[in-house]
């Protein structure tokens, strides 16, 4: 079965749009993070740290390898924004926990990221639909 030219063109254009949106979001995060003295990966880690979690969980949320997340967390730990605590059920693991300073900085970051977000032109319903479609595309295997 061969794919039709219009189908190939539509998929190519869709991939371009998704890549363009990812670039816009990445640039938005970099600019906003810099105003707080953070790198984009540090900002991503703070954004994704919604509660105590392991390094592996955070790396999954950041879409990176645990070793890359470790490097980022080490920098945030030096700034006293994150602490490593013993995991309550796994003696081999540590939980990452925001300090009060980290929590305050995360709240600032979230406010900055919401300002002029590349997704702000979409309604809540449109964002929800986009989320569902992208989630379905990403998790389809």
From TrEMBL:
Signal peptide: none annotated. Residues 11-139 form the HTH marR-type domain. InterPro entries: HTH_MarR-typ, MarR/SlyA-like, WH-like_DNA-bd_sf, WH_DNA-bd_sf. This is MarR family transcriptional regulator. It comes from Streptomyces gossypii.
